[in-house]
């Protein structure tokens, strides 16, 4: 259905778009301090990240389905154009509320880019090359989560926070030119019925859930009327969405896909890997700064071993797809991931930098498999008109996992940290409440030196213990991943000679 010419240039355009969109959340996070110092609005800073995340999550399944119905190219170009437009607006924002609106515009575009890019690969590349290509795309996707903070810190320190957004423009324009010029799609759109009720109920449910997770326990208590209202709205519209999808002729998410063991297991794994991996990218830099006393730059650089491990894992999984079953590949992944996370659960102030590097490479290698294999497994045996929906569903569950992981493991780590500081300082003559409220001083070398030694020791040990214990808690969902892998079955890609079809081979 796609004219297969200039595939390398098409791939280059897809890689640039994935790098840009996937990196956007993390690159902005490191610039938040400078943004707030310039624009003010500290009380509403969470909207800067929340608006983007909500828009991306809500848009993924919808754009994936639309690409199945009316073609990939038009919606990929639409997403890329909207993303660039939003990036330009973000760079000239004059207030935090204004920036939040522009970030939402960015997010609408980002929701189209990530799932459709992976789907295009399955459309334009023959089976014998798909594994390697998804491995490459997966490596770029994984690398973006680590490169984002480094690039964000460098740009903010050397130029200004505005260029965190402007940097997207040359990258995005290059991707846009390559896709417009070299991606030739011959699919003719047909008049089809859009599932408006499903789209509306999905967006409302996702927005309610994301805001409930983002603001609960921070802006207002979990038991407040605001939290109850948001989660109740999510429950109502999620139920409405499920009802609408069973009656729509072209549903946003086709539930018949979940009857396929490979597809259903891949979504569970995407959710678990998304939820647990995000904790690593957040807590490792915190550990380096608070426990080792490193700078923000050192905290970002320390993630490079995990980046290298994830790139190797993604590449290996892509190469092995035609050699081994999906189940066997993911078994290697989960074992390596569990070992790596188990090792991360042992870190302490006495852990050497060498050992921490080794632990991160192990955990990065394990999680890297998922970046390339799960999208491939999700579209296995799917025909053209279902690939976009299948791939976007996988991206949706991974992104949902990120949101859940940040909330759940963030709450666990905060609770462990504050409890230990309170227990250790109460009765010692030190003000535990004041220490907890001013924990940011431990991240600032100048102020860290002024903290009394006994108090600093308590903070360092509490920070270390809370992070290592949080990693230990992560082993619970990872253990569930073993069960999901078992249910993947024994399917794999097998490429016939002189044939572009994908067949199923079952290992007896």
Written description of the protein model:
The chain has 19 helices and 4 strands. With 508 residues, it is mainly α. The protein folds into 3 domains: 1-192, Up-down Bundle (Growth Hormone, Chain: A); 195-249; 261-508, Growth Hormone, Chain: A, CATH 1.20.1250.20. The strands form 2 sheets. A two-stranded antiparallel ribbon has the order 1-2. The longest helix is centred in the last third of the chain and has 42 residues, at 384-425.
Task: Map the helices and strands.
Layout: E1 2-3, H1 7-29, H2 32-39, H3 46-70, H4 72-91, H5 96-124, H6 127-158, H7 163-166, H8 168-182, E2 184-185, H9 196-215, H10 225-245, H11 261-292, H12 296-301, H13 304-320, H14 326-344, H15 353-378, H16 384-425, H17 432-437, H18 445-448, H19 453-486, E3 493-495, E4 502-504
Antiparallel strand pairs: 1-2, 3-4
Protein name: DHA2 family efflux MFS transporter permease subunit
Transmembrane segments: 45-63, 75-94, 100-122, 134-155, 161-182, 194-213, 225-244, 264-287, 299-317, 329-348, 354-374, 395-412, 471-489
GO molecular function, one term: transmembrane transporter activity
> What is the percentage of strand-forming residues?
under 5%
Question: What is the CATH architecture annotation of the largest domain?
Answer: Up-down Bundle
Query: What is the CA-based Rg, rounded?
Result: 23 Å
CATH superfamily of the largest domain: MFS general substrate transporter like domains
Which series of helices and strands comes N to C?
A: EHHHHHHHHEHHHHHHHHHHHEE
CATH fold topology of the largest domain: Growth Hormone, Chain: A
Mean pLDDT: 80
Helix and strand composition category = mainly alpha
What is the overall silhouette? globular
Number of strands: 4
Low-confidence stretches: 498-508
Largest sheet: 2 strands, antiparallel
Gap between N and C termini? 34 Å
CATH C-level name of the largest domain: Mainly Alpha
* Tally of separate helices: 19
**How many domains, as an integer?**
3
Percentage of residues assigned to helices:
over 70%
Spatial order of the strands forming the largest sheet: 1-2
């Amino acid at each position: 259905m796609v004219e297969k010419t200039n595939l390398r240039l098409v791939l280059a355009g897809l890689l640039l778009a994935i790098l840009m969109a996937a990196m956007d959340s993390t690159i902005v996070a490191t610039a938040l301090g400078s943004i707030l110092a310039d624009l003010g609005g500290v009380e509403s800073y969470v909207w800067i990240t929340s608006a983007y995340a909500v828009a991306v999550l809500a848009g993924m399944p919808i754009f994936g389905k639309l690409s199945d119905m009316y073609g990939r190219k038009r919606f990929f170009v639409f997403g890329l154009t909207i993303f660039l437009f939003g990036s330009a607006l973000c760079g000239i924002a004059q207030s935090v509320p204004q920036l939040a609106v522009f970030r939402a515009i960015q997010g609408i575009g980002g929701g189209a880019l990530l799932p459709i890019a992976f789907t295009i690969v399955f459309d334009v590349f023959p089976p014998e090359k798909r594994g390697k290509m998804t491995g490459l795309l997966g490596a770029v996707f994984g690398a973006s989560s680590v490169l984002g903070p480094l690039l964000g810190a460098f740009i903010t320190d050397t130029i200004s926070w505005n260029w965190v957004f402007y940097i997207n423009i040359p990258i995005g324009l290059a991707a846009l030119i390559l896709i417009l010029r070299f991606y030739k799609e011959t699919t003719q759109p047909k008049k089809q019925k859009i599932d408006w009720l499903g789209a509306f109920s999905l967006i409302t449910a996702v927005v309610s859930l994301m805001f409930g997770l983002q603001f609960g326990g921070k802006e207002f208590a979990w038991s407040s009327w605001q939290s109850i209202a948001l989660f109740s709205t999510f429950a109502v519209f999620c139920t409405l969405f499920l009802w609408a999808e069973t009656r729509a002729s072209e549903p946003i998410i086709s539930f018949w896909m979940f009857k396929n063991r490979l597809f259903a297991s891949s979504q569970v794994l995407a959710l678990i890997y998304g939820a647990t991996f995000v904790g690593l990218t957040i807590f490792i830099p915190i550990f380096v700064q608070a426990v080792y006393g490193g700078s923000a730059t050192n905290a970002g650089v320390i993630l490079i071993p995990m980046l290298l491990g994830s790139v190797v894992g993604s590449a290996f999984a892509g190469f092995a797809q035609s050699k081994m079953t999906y189940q066997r590949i993911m078994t290697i992944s989960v074992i390596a991931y569990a070992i790596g996370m188990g090792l991360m659960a042992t870190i302490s102030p006495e852990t050497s930098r060498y050992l921490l590097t080794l632990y991160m490479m192990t955990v990065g290698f394990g999680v890297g498999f998922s970046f390339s294999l799960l999208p491939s497994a999700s579209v296995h045996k799917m025909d053209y008109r279902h690939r976009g929906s299948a791939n976007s569903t996988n991206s949706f569950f991974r992104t949902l996992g990120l949101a859940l992981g940040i909330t759940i493991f963030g709450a666990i780590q905060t609770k462990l940290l504050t409890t230990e500081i309170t227990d250790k300082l109460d009765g010692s003559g030190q003000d535990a409440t004041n220490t907890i409220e001013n924990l940011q001083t431990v991240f600032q070398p100048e102020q860290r030196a002024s903290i009394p030694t006994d108090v600093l020791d308590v903070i360092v040990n509490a920070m270390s213990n809370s992070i290592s214990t949080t990693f230990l808690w992560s082993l619970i969902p990872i253990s569930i991943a073993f069960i999901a892998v078992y249910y993947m079955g024994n399917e794999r890609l097998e490429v016939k000679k002189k044939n572009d079809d994908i067949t199923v081979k079952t290992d007896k």
